[in-house]
Write a structure and sequence with these properties.
Blueprint lengths: L12 E3 L2 H23 L2 E5 L3 H10 L9 E5 L1 E3 L9 H12 L6 E3 L7 H15 L4 E5 L22 E4 L9 E4 L1 H4 L4 E6 L5 H8 L5 H5 L3 E5 L5
Parallel strand pairs: 1-10, 2-3, 2-6, 3-5, 6-9, 9-10
Antiparallel strand pairs: 4-8, 7-8
């Protein structure tokens, strides 16, 4: 029998197509960012890499947001050299550059090139200064992992803000990730899940399996029909 999650998942918002799911997630993200800026003059947005998050951010960066009031915090990074095409910071920099923003966000990368242990230590120190995130925006992989937090990984149980991920089941095997504790501290937690290859994960989540997404407990969950059937 599957182990059950501690908190029940909300019902997802299921859109007809992938692009409509990205558009819906982007619209909600922009609303949440602007609400945080209106309330306290700034917004801390922690975001993972991957196609879903990048697609949502590509839309959001074109919207009516004063991004100079936003701090973007990468949720995870692969332990590869600076500038490597596998790095999430490379993809994020390209997105920001292509948006031709008048006001750019502050971007907090992860020093994963130093290795998982030192990279996690430096990230924890940085997150202590940045403080609690207003929003966490994550995609969902076909095995149910979020950021670089994989099913049944010891990294899920850390009490620190960041964690070294080693012996990862997917290459590259060494990574640095914000912890589940830090990600779930966000007021708004947005998950985006699209594509036929995510259907099995949806079924397992509906059955109550204790996958990382269930532990993340999104407050807003956007899917396309293909991810449900």
């Amino acid at each position: 029998m599957s182990e059950k999650s501690e908190r029940s998942l909300i019902n997802p918002e299921i859109l007809e197509t992938e692009i409509k799911a990205f558009q819906a997630a982007s619209a909600w993200l922009v609303k949440a960012v602007n609400s945080a800026i209106a309330a306290k003059g700034s917004c801390v947005l922690v975001l993972a890499g991957g196609n879903s998050v990048n697609s949502v951010m590509r839309l959001a960066l074109q919207d009516d947001v004063n991004w100079s009031h936003v701090q973007l915090v990468l949720a995870d990074e692969r332990c590869v050299p600076v500038g490597h095409t596998d790095r999430n910071d490379v993809a994020l920099s390209a997105l920001i550059e292509s948006a031709s923003l008048q006001h750019r966000p502050v971007v907090h990368g992860i020093s994963a090139e130093l290795g998982p242990q030192l990279g996690a230590e430096k990230l924890s120190a940085r997150l202590a200064i940045i403080g609690r995130p207003d929003i966490a925006l994550l995609g969902v992989a076909d095995d149910g992992h979020i950021a670089s937090l994989f099913p049944d990984s010891p990294a899920l149980s850390t009490t620190e803000a960041a964690v070294a991920v080693v012996n990862c089941v997917k290459a590259p095997r060494e990574r640095v990730s914000c912890s589940l504790k830090y990600l779930t501290s966000a007021t708004d937690r947005i998950a985006v899940q699209t594509g036929h290859n995510k259907r099995d994960i949806f079924v397992r989540l509906q059955q109550g399996e204790r996958l990382p997404l269930a532990l993340f407990s999104p407050t807003h969950w956007f899917m396309d029909y293909n991810a449900t059937r």
